[in-house]
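INFO batch 0412 | record 1 of 1 | parsing
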Amino acid sequence: MWQIFITLAGFFVALIFYALVSCLIEIRKEWWRRILLLIGSWLLIFMVIFTGDLVNLPPTLLFFLFCVWIACRGSGLKRLTVGMMLASVMFALNALFDNCISCYFHSVAENYYLYYFLFRALSVILLCAGVYRHRPERDFELSPPLWRLLLMLCIPPMGIVCALVLFNNYDYRGTDYMLMNTILFLVAAVSFAGILWAMLTLNRQQKLERENALAEHNKKYYEAMEQQQFEIRRIRHDLANHLQVLLSLPAEEKDSYIQNMIANPAFEKVLNYSGDATVNAVLTVKESRMRQRDITFYAKMDIPTELPFEKPDLCALFANALDNAIEACTALDTDKRQIALTARAAKGILAVEVKNPFEGALSGSLPKTTKQDAQNHGYGLRSIQEIVKKYGGNMEIRQENGWFCLFCFVPEPKPQI
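INFO prediction complete | emitting tokens
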């Protein structure tokens, strides 16, 4: 009777472990992948690990890593590292019970399966509670060198378990032997907490570096626009000097000088799209760029007054959204190039939507840059995402009816008293 109950309850424990996996890595949506991971989790949790047994541990490890590889998203290094982390801690806990703790239950051998289930269930629940409390962000990602570092940190605990299980004699049960095994299995199990802490620390450090890079990128973007506006004001201020030069030039050179002046951005009128000067300046520059690339631009703006956001953030939000759309349209035929911008500020919320034709399929939460120099590009969408998060808003990317749609809403910051 106990065995039937334990078998049924085991699937519930496997679901808890499945939730633990989802805290560390994104799981794909296909139902068969999820079932495969659930089976792999159940097998990992309840596999008996005796020292001297060469049969159980190796195939269980390979099967669980295969399940994680097939069922989860992310880079290959991420999937392998997370799989090794979870496998090492569960093997250590299972071996700790089967070879050390179970020796103390000989007097209650008739209830062995109950203790067997309770230990494994309690181990999974505590692990899940600890990881859930200190879990990283759902979309976190580390660079390949950092994933390789974490993978190297997983080797010692897994090596301890494999050495004790595969290269020890099952028949020997001396007191010193039991104490040594207990300590080593505990060290291997506790190592999981250190690896998880290292993962969170590296994630925070990389996130901070990325935020600093994005802030510097946005600052340079805004400073470049400010410098351009300054040059426009300066040249307009020197208009009298230009007229004096025109009077002194020979007739055959006047036409050329006038053409150069007309082509200068300083003499382009700043379009009045909204009540915010920064938004108007950005859209004026981008509208000129679109005209040069034969892109039709539709703008529906409802921003009656100045927006209370930091100017570099506001500039980067509109500029990056339009730059991405311009880059996508440039790759299309001329008759398909069009961008639609809708923006509205009302009831304390700024809502912005940018749409452009899109031929392809979205993959992942943030599409990767198509430029060859990916290290120095690809800041656009990530910059927008960070700005939106900074003000407590949300960003959504979707594909519908042949259009790429970027939508974000940003609550206006409350004035400080």
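INFO post-check: The radius of gyration is 31 Å.
INFO record closed
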